[in-house]
Amino acid sequence: MLQTDELLDAWRKSPVAAVPPSEVVLVTDFDGTLAEIVPDPAQTVARPEALQALSRLVRVLADVIVLSSRTTGQLEQLIPISGVRLIGDSGMAAPRHAHKSALEQFNADVAVLLERLPGAWLEVKPASSAIHFRGTNLSGEEMLAFIQPLLEGRPLAGYLGRKVLEVHAPKAGKGTALAALLPGMDPGGVVCFGDDENDRSMFEYVSSMDVPHLCVGVSSPEAPAHLFDHCDVVVSGPEEAAAFLNEIVGWAEGAVQPAN
Length: 260
Known about the structure:
With 260 residues, the protein is an alpha/beta fold. It folds into 2 domains: 4-92 and 173-255, Rossmann fold; 97-168, Trehalose-6-phosphate phosphatase related protein, domain 2 (Alpha-Beta Plaits, 2-Layer Sandwich), CATH 3.30.70.1020. The protein contains 8 helices and 10 strands. It has a 6-stranded parallel sheet with strand order 3-2-1-8-9-10. A 4-stranded antiparallel sheet has the order 4-5-7-6, covered by helices on one side. α1 packs across α8 (237-255).
């Protein structure tokens, strides 16, 4: 685990630390980043110190965004902080007719298939579906092979995460969502946090930006290979991620001049 002075040093050496806080956009994942992964996603809660950091950052940064594969409705319950921009379903737009129809047919077929697999269950979301299999003994590769026949011939793709398989239109996801969102915001700097496969495209996009940026990977024993290749800093789990967020709080509040 990184010590406080190491976290502070990592932040101070970041090019984003030279940008006025009012021009910095912060983007963070939720599960595995702001909150620990638990067997039942319905029992998940954010770390209190992470929520406290977001509640303070939203007052001093250009924008604070939580970009998650959860639905926006779930995020509203999990992050009750006014001013934080909550983007659910990995920022994917409502699917076009062909993708919507394919997703609905996939959901019907996979529901029947999962009846033979105790411990796995289907979550239906507006633009995607998630097959949770933490309650099974299957590896990610085995789960993907189990589902793959239902994807063939359909305009859908399966993406493995931490004991979850996300199914949606190919090439959709967090990187695509940020590429559509951030240029119009014209940020002076961008910081992003993530822990899982669906954050890879976010890391790739943010690391390619011309403005000062910092990608923070949140590691775990379940992190896939090379996930953090585009990250500038890697912290250990949500506890250390929250500590890093609070280092940013200290910098941002210290840089903001109090109103007369």
